[in-house]
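Issue: ligand-bound run for fe (ii) ion - logging full I/O for the record.

Environment: standard queue, default settings, no custom constraints.

Inputs:
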Amino acid sequence: MEKPIIPTPDFYAYPSSPLDSVLLDDRFALLGWADGTTLEAFDFWLRENAVGAGGVDLATREGLLDPAELHDGIRMLDASIGDDGSLHIRWAPDGVEATYHSGWLRHVADGNHRPDSWLPDPVLWTAATLPEPPTHEGAVVLEDDEMFGRWLEDLMRYGLSRLRHCPTDEHFNIEFSRRIGAVRDTNFGPIWDVKADVQMAGHADTNSTANTNLRLGPHTDLPTRETPPGFQFLHCIENEAGGGYSTMADGAAVVEALEVEHPEHYEALTTLNWIFFNRGPGIDHRWSGPFIDHGVAGSPLTLRAFYPVRGFPDMDPHDMPRAYAAMTCFSQMAASDRFQIAYPFEPGDLVGFDNRRILHGREAFETGGKRHLRGIYIDQDEVRSTARVTSRRLAAHHRSVQV
Ligand SMILES: [Fe+2]
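Outputs:
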């Protein structure tokens, strides 16, 4: 007869990892595995994670216990290890019994519950180490889960990943986004055009520098928001213009080099604030923040680097000379051959990049012609969620294949 499956506080299938020891020590259950791994599990936390026993709802796998209901009478009466290595706890004062899956406990002991787990570590790059974007075939990524996972891994690791030979249909970008997550809408709309009939004289009638024939220096989009869009996906539908190569630089690598080589500029860019300002009929988006924003521990890096929408220094006037000097140094480094790569943007290319880490831009056009890109934003939360799910699904698949 098949053993009953012990439900866990989420919807993942964990491989069993039998406990070797359990000891109650005041408010903690001290759990041990044969390889020396340990976990100090606090009583209220275990009670909150008792699936189907008042802690976690079996249907939603969400917590049921309001902290207001926790009281000192809730205590572990005894703890034991089941035949399958799971943890069994009997609770006072209600006599509730709860069983905890050994593999689920083990994933916490291993730190695999943390937001950065199941995501690849970032790899910082320069023009020498990554002369062109990591590239995948669009049709293969669209149809094959494993290849989709690899493309997503590259996107997380390098902050940049390109698909080639995608359809040039105007709706392709939105359709593709369904594989990743909800699109982040802005005042430019859920999908926006970078459209220029490059005439090589004067500017198009437009509300964005992106729609002109000018060079666009390395930048990040929408620093005017409290949380700028996490990722940007640009799809090339048509490009007859000459020149106008796309440029990319790994802002995280520039930040790392700046800290070592110009610590005074690093200090100025991480501590002095600027007000960024999207101006237009009916809109007034403003946010004040440092050029280099590390956020709280665990936050993705946010670079606020877009001179067309940088409105005002938000600092003591005495700090302005060093603030400008620091910004100039950073921007020169980002645009240098050491950090910046340039490559043609061809119809059917879809380039995804971390809008808060990667500095993107465009060289000036050399000859005229039609150029049509369509872009969408998707927030970090969406991309990270899909990357975790994909990577866990692929890991489970490989485990079952190996068995
Ligand atoms: Fe941009």
